[in-house]
Amino acid sequence: MVNSIINVPAGFPPILLTIMKQITILCLMIFTRHFFARIAGACLIFLFVFQPFIAIYSTIPGVSLSAWAAELPQPFGAILPKDAYELIQQNKGNPNFVLIDIRTPEEFMSGYIEGAVNINYHDNDFIEKLDKLDKNKTYLIYCRTGRRSSDTLNVMKRLKFNEVYHILGDIVRWKAEKLPLVK
Questions:
Q1: Which strands sit side by side in the sheet containing 117-118, from one edge to the other?
Q2: What is the pLDDT along the chain (183 residues), one digit of tens a residue?
Q3: φ, ψ for residue 13 (rounded to 5)?
């Protein structure tokens, strides 16, 4: 039952998964008696039991939840700023990798990630500009907080792009993690 509730990342330590399953089953047996209560209980237990274990595990040096995601075939998704920085560094000079800042030109000029091109989300021809891009390249997009990049990720998926990522937390989180910007 627990395996059907959560999606365990590849490489997650089996001992932690076993402990989490046992805690969940114990809690279900103690606190619930009815079928619907068990379902609600399982959801609450997931939120309060599993998330802290995964968060603690992800702080272990050399372990990244984004690295787990990279092992899976997910051509669209979010990556952590530190992983985005590594991806950008690995792809410097790679013509098949494009970093796109979709903020306004004014926002862009206040500070942007080195190598980014600016395509204004608010332009009337924004979707047409995206559609003209090579759909076989890998794209990393970001905005200020994530709303525009999430929308753009979905648009690019509909336009049949092969591989598009956005930075989790976008430029706000990038700055908070003190990663480099061009001003």
A1: 76-79, 163-167, 138-142, 97-101, 117-118
A2: 444 445 556 566 666 666 767 676 656 556 555 655 566 566 555 555 555 555 444 444 555 545 544 444 357 888 999 999 999 999 999 999 999 999 999 999 999 999 999 999 999 999 999 999 999 999 999 999 999 999 999 999 999 999 999 999 999 999 999 999 998
A3: -60, 125
47 and 98 in a single domain? The answer is no
What torsion, rounded to 10 degrees, do the Cα atoms 123, 75, 140, 57 define?
Answer: 130
Residue 63 falls within a domain, yes or no?
no
The answer to whether the CB of 164 falls within 8 A of the CB of 76 is yes
The angle that helices 51-58 and 14-31 make with each other, rounded to 10 degrees, is 160
Cβ 143 vs Cβ 170: under 8 Å:
yes
pTM here is: 0.61
Parent domain of 146? 69-176
Rounded Cα–Cα distance for residues 152 and 174 (Å): 19
